[in-house]
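Design request, tokens follow.
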């Protein structure tokens, strides 16, 4: 199990725990809401029974009014609509001025909810009521809690992700610069020895050719050291013909690839210009080509298709290799991802950084099928 599978499982476990917490909260809030709703109905039923008692007992008008006020105080917070035998409506406990139209709407909403009106007598033959604001708040609490919890998790994730990414960037830049520094000393020494060998008059032409090849390889090491030294610093971008750059990178990799490998470059026009840092951009292309070669076991086809759409340049680098499993598609650009037994798994991660942060472009897997091949796409802003 690799680090990304473990991370995915931890995310799943945390998601399940969060879901259980939300579910328990929702169930408990629903239980409280049902209890409060039943309690409020019992209070309205008590109110109805009290009104029956008032209308049956021989109280004078003032007594009736005092008793009714006392009853209304006991159901304060629960708006009620009273309907007499003739259908006239009276509203009580509303914190606003009510009209007949408003009361008819309140009555209809009560009936539409499936509840049955409470029967009394006199001017309160039927009683319709609305649940209190407290009950409404309790019902809405799980939804509010869900969004608050989601916002908290999102902000926390973004904060930790940003902090982790910044720390990774510092580590990568430090490693790259230290690597460039460590390469500098042996490279300088090797160059000195090569120059010393060239001064030997007894060297044969074959030996001199070997020395020249050694100098060429050392030049390649100097280029690699220069690339590492640019990581973490804002590189200079210069206009370039992307088609020429692709041809150059493929020519370099072709000399070092098995003979049964086929390379091809397709461009809908020439030149196609963009601003790039030559050393870093060539590094990205060579990294993609090297990954393609590793995926084909010495035989297959690599094709680079360069084209322009509106204000963007696209470079599709396709191979006929093993392909990338669908469950790995989201992690190919993360540090540590590798389908090879050797390597640190930093190539594609650094390629993404170079393209997106330094060239304001994008790099992504356009398509991939097992045993059919993979296509990586680089998108760059085009020069006008």
């Amino acid at each position: 199990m690799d680090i990304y599978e473990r991370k995915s499982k931890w995310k799943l476990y945390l998601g399940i725990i969060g879901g259980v917490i939300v579910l328990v909260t929702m169930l408990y809030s629903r239980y409280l809401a049902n209890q409060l709703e039943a309690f409020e109905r019992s209070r309205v039923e008590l109110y109805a029974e009290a009104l029956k008692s008032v209308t049956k007992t021989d109280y004078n008008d003032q007594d009736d009014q005092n008793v009714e006020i006392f009853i209304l105080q006991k159901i304060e917070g629960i708006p009620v609509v009273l309907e007499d035998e003739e259908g006239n409506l009276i509203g009580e406990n509303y914190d606003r001025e009510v009209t007949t139209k408003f009361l008819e709407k309140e009555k209809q909403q009560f009936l539409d909810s499936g509840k049955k009106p409470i029967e009394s007598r006199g001017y309160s033959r039927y009683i319709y009521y609305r649940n209190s604001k407290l009950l409404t708040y309790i019902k809405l609490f799980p939804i509010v809690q869900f969004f608050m919890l989601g916002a908290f998790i999102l902000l926390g994730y973004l904060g930790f992700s940003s902090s982790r990414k910044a720390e990774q960037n510092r580590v990568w830049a430090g490693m790259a610069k230290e690597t460039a520094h460590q390469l500098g000393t042996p490279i300088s020494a090797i160059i000195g020895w090569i120059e010393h060998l060239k001064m030997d008059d007894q060297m044969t032409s074959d030996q001199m050719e070997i020395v020249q090849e050694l100098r060429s390889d050392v030049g390649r090491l100097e280029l690699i050291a220069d690339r590492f030294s640019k990581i973490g610093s804002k590189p200079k971008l210069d206009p370039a013909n992307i088609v020429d750059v692709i041809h150059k990178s493929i020519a370099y990799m072709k000399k070092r690839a098995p003979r049964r490998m086929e390379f091809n470059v397709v461009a809908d026009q020439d030149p196609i210009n963009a601003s790039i840092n030559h050393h870093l951009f060539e590094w990205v292309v060579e990294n993609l080509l090297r990954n393609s070669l590793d995926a084909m076991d010495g035989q297959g086809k690599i094709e680079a298709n360069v084209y322009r759409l509106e204000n963007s340049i696209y470079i599709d680098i396709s191979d006929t290799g093993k392909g990338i499993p669908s469950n790995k598609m989201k992690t190919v650009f993360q540090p540590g991802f590798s389908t090879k037994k050797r390597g640190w798994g930093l190539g594609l991660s650094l390629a993404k950084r170079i393209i997106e942060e330094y060239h304001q472009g994008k790099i992504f897997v356009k398509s991939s099928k097992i045993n059919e091949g993979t296509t990586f796409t680089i998108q760059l802003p085009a020069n006008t």
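Comment from the thread starter after seeing the answer: thanks! The first helix runs from residue 3 to 56.
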